[in-house]
Backbone:
C-alpha cells in the first residue's frame, strides 16, 4: 500500500473538525501526507494547526519569538540531521538541543557526499516539508552552510544532488523525523550509541 493510500485511509477516519484542518493545508497546495502532518490531526493530544490567516501569528512564527516554537524548530532541525545520517548508514551518537535554540547532532565520520546530505537535511525539512509551520526555518544555520560548502566544494550541482537526496530520504521518513523531534523537544538530549 502506498503512502498516499495510507494517508487517504487515515483521512477517512478523521472527525469532520480534523478533516477541515487537513483540508486547509491541502488548499495551500500540500499533498495529503504533508497536510496530515502539518495539521497535527494524527496526534490526539495535540491542538490542531491550520494555516496562519492571522498576520500576528504569522509574524510570531516568522520572527521566532515564541520559545515553544523555537524549541520545536530546533528539535526538528536536529532530528532531520539524525534521520538523514541514519538513513545513509552513518552512526549517530547523540542529539542535543538547548534552551537558546542551538543544537548538535553528533555522528560518525563519513564520506563528503553523505556529509553534504546530512548538512542540508534541516534546510530541506524546514524549508520544504514544514515551511508553513516554520516560515523562516528553511534558511539554514551558518555551521551547516559551512559543512555543506566544504563537502560539495560549493559546487551548485553537488549541492543540488545533496538536496535531492535529502528530500527523498526525509520524504520517506517524515514520521520518523517528527517522532524524534517530539521526543527531543521533551527531553532535550538523546544518546543513541557511544562514540
Residues:
Amino acid at each position: 500500500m502506498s503512502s498516499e493510500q495510507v494517508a487517504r485511509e487515515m483521512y477517512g477516519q478523521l472527525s469532520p473538525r480534523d478533516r477541515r484542518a487537513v483540508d486547509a493545508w491541502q488548499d495551500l497546495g500540500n499533498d495529503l501526507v504533508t497536510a496530515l502532518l502539518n495539521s497535527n490531526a494524527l496526534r490526539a493530544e495535540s491542538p490542531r494547526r491550520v494555516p496562519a490567516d492571522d498576520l500576528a501569528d504569522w509574524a510570531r512564527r516568522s520572527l521566532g519569538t515564541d520559545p515553544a516554537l523555537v524549541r520545536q524548530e530546533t528539535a526538528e532541525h536536529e532530528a532531520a540531521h539524525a534521520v538523514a545520517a541514519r538513513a545513509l548508514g552513518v552512526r549517530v551518537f547523540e542529539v542535543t538541543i538547548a534552551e537558546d535554540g542551538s543544537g548538535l547532532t553528533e555522528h560518525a565520520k563519513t564520506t563528503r557526499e553523505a556529509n553534504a546530505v546530512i548538512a542540508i537535511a534541516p534546510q530541506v525539512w524546514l524549508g520544504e516539508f514544514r515551511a508553513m509551520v516554520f516560515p523562516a526555518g528553511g534558511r539554514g544555520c551558518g555551521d551547516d552552510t559551512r559543512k555543506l560548502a566544504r563537502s560539495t566544494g560549493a559546487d551548485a550541482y553537488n549541492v543540488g544532488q545533496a538536496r535531492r537526496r535529502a528530500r527523498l530520504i526525509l520524504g520517506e521518513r517524515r514520521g520518523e523525523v517528527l517522532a524524534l523531534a517530539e521526543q527531543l523537544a521533551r527531553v532535550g538530549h538523546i544518546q543513541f550509541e557511544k562514540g
Observations:
- The first strand starts at residue 92 and ends at 97.
